[in-house]
Amino acid sequence: EPEVTQTPSHQVTQMGQEVILRCVPISNHLYFYWYRQILGQKVEFLVSFYNNEISEKSEIFDDQFSVERPDGSNFTLKIRSTKLEDSAMYFCASAADSKNIQYFGAGTRLSVL
Amino acid sequence: GENVEQHPSTLSVQEGDSAVIKCTYSDSASNYFPWYKQELGKRPQLIIDIRSNVGEKKDQRIAVTLNKTAKHFSLHITETQPEDSAVYFCAANTGTASKLTFGTGTRLQVTL
Fold first, then answer.
1. Quick check: A48 and B43 CB within 8 A?
2. CA distance to B76, B99, B105, B107, per residue, from B11 (Å)
3. Closest among A109, A4, A21 to B46, alpha carbons compared
4. B45: chain A residues, CB-CB within 8 Å
5. How close does chain B come to A92, measured CA to CA in Å?
6. pLDDT tens-digit profile of B63-83?
7. A40-71 burial, b if ≥16 CB within 10 A, otherwise e?
8. For the purposes of burial, counting CB atoms within 10 Å of the CB of B25, is it exposed (0-12), middle (13-18) or buried (19 or more)?
9. Where are any strands of DSSP class E within chain A?
């Protein structure tokens, strides 16, 4: 069964550093999403991406965050200057269309020290 | 924006008993309601979903019901087993790209 893959599984960084989280969505999927989950809390929407542009973003997704689909397979989330409160599990998800099931990757645990 | 509330936050049942988790949503435009199971340190896994054009859906021991008028939906697990122990999240979609708004989760523990 096809899966969404995310790398790295764990990223440790110093406050103020830039990080790039990588995702390979399921091929032939058209909608891509990033969510985050702070330890012990619910999953929160960050951003959705379709047709090479952001469809929607949440209040969390401020100008420190950006997304990119640099080629036909990767979908990245960049945090320019990490803060302690950015520490969380970041999940990528993809869907064949907006009415379809969203499949989640295994996540990247980001630890900001 | 959409707000999804979920109850209870924790639920402990004995093996073989049924478990019910309830969610309410606020956006009447939401039309897709998935349920995800998340084991510790793992990704959310879709276990069942329901669309607004049906009132109930069943898959073996798992069922979901939807009341559009009242804006609530529920997950029912029958004949619970220890491997059902996990955190369960309900969600509702909104927006043109159908982002998911999640509930706060229910930690289900099935005891022997």
1. no
2. 12, 27, 11, 6
3. A4
4. 104
5. 10
6. 999 999 999 999 999 999 999
7. eebbbbbbbbbeeeebbbbebbeeebebebee
8. buried
9. 5-7, 10-13, 19-24, 31-37, 43-50, 53-57, 65-68, 75-79, 88-95, 103-104, 108-112
| Nearest C-alpha in B relative to A4 | B43
Q: Is B27 exposed, middle or buried (0-12, 13-18, 19+ CB in 10 A)?
A: middle
Task: Calculate the alpha carbon distances from A13 to A19, A21, A110 in Å.
Answer: 8, 12, 8
Tokens 């927006």 sit on residue = B95
Residue listed under structure tokens 């969600």: B91
- Among B34, B95, B102, beta carbon nearest to A42: B102
B6 beta partners: B23
Q: What is the pLDDT along chain A (113 residues), one digit of tens a residue?
A: 789 999 999 999 999 999 999 999 999 899 999 999 998 888 999 999 999 999 999 999 999 999 999 887 899 999 999 999 999 999 999 999 877 799 999 999 999 99
- Residue B65's identity, in one-letter code, is T
Beta-bridge partners for B46: B36
- Tell me how far apart the alpha carbons of residues A86 and A80 are, in angstroms, rounded to a whole number: 11
The residue to which tokens 């973003």 are assigned: A57
Asked if residues A18 and A78 have their Cβ atoms less than 8 Å apart, the reply is yes
Distance (Å, whole) CA B41 – CA A39: 10
Q: Searching chain A, which residue's CA lies closest to the CA of residue B3?
A: A44
Given an 8 Å threshold on Cβ–Cβ distance, is B43 in contact with A106? yes
